[in-house]
Specification:
This protein has helices at residues 20-30, 58-69, 85-96, 122-129, 140-147, 154-165, 211-224, 229-246, and strands at residues 6-14, 34-46, 49-55, 74-79, 103-105, 133-136, 171-175, 184-191, 194-201. It has 270 residues and is an alpha/beta fold. The chain has one domain (6-246): UDP-N-acetylmuramoyl-L-alanine:D-glutamate ligase, CATH 3.40.1190. A nine-stranded mixed sheet has the order 3-2-1-4-5-6-7-8-9, sandwiched between helices.
Length: 270
């Protein structure tokens, strides 16, 4: 087998194994990409919620970044939970120095359970990482926080994607999974001057823990494998939809469980 390409995740740890670093590494492996990691926070969480979180010291985050980037040829990186302004600034420092190629920014600020995962100012977050992002992937609540306004319906989602793109990311994907729609799951992608609707049937399952992390990691993995940007995003959405379908009947924990990351679809073949 040829040497696998390398991707990097900069995110928090999920002790329940469904989101964060754990979901990202599962997703990289499913795509036959070697995953490296920088742990920005430790959390105590399960399918029912987050009971504790502690940000990693900034000097330890820096040491992890240097350890990975000085030894591995990272082809793409993605961020998840950063936790604090200090870590945000550190990641921005490395991105500005062109040490984080093809950065996929998943602006993790609030857990699905409602628990806060970022203590800083959303406007500062957008101003620092927006210009460095190849793809920015907020869900509806995150897009509302970043823009400071409500987003209601598909037309608002498209306008939000354009507004976020003005901050510098090459592409913006606004995810509509939090919209109250029993039939369809609509995401919108603004990429290279085009608006693309990514529509799929909504999967009937409570097991959606970590879908945002998984999607961003799948985009990064596909970019690592050389997929053009729009196709990388579209393929990642299909991968997550299939992962939701494959885990629809799982009962891991008492709350929303994880998706099936290793459901048999690797991007090496599609």
């Amino acid at each position: 087998m040829r040497t696998p390409p390398v991707a990097l995740t900069i995110a928090g740890s999920d002790s329940g194994g469904g989101a964060g670093i754990q979901a990202d590494l599962h997703t990289f492996a499913a795509h036959r990409v070697h995953g490296t990691s920088v742990v920005t926070a430790l959390t105590a969480q399960n399918t029912r919620g987050v009971t504790a979180a502690h940000a990693s010291p900034a000097d330890l985050v820096r040491a992890q970044l240097d350890a990975v980037l000085d030894d591995f040829k990272v082809a793409a990186a993605k961020t998840g939970m950063l936790g604090s302004d200090e870590i945000l600034e550190l990641v921005a420092e490395y991105g500005t120095a062109d040490r984080l190629p093809d950065l996929v920014v998943d602006p993790v600020m609030v857990a699905a359970s409602g628990d806060s995962l970022f203590s800083g100012d959303p406007a500062v977050y957008l101003g620092r990482l927006g210009p460095l992002a190849t793809v920015l992937t907020p869900n509806l609540p995150e897009a509302e926080q970043l823009l400071g306004r409500r987003i209601d319906g598909p037309d608002d989602m498209r306008e939000a994607a354009r507004a976020l793109a003005a901050y510098g990311p090459r592409a913006v994907m606004v995810k509509g999974g939090h919209a109250e729609d029993a039939e369809r799951s609509l995401d919108v992608l603004w990429s290279e001057g085009r608006m693309i609707d990514l529509d799929a049937p909504r999967v009937a399952t409570k097991n959606g823990h970590g879908t945002g992390c998984t999607l961003a990691a799948a985009i990064a993995a596909r970019i690592t494998l050389g997929h053009p940007l729009p196709q990388a995003v579209e393929g990642a959405k299909t991968y997550v939809t299939e992962a939701l379908e494959a885990s629809a009947e799982w009962r891991l924990g008492a709350g929303p469980g994880p998706v099936h990351h290793h459901h048999g679809r690797g991007s090496a073949t599609r």
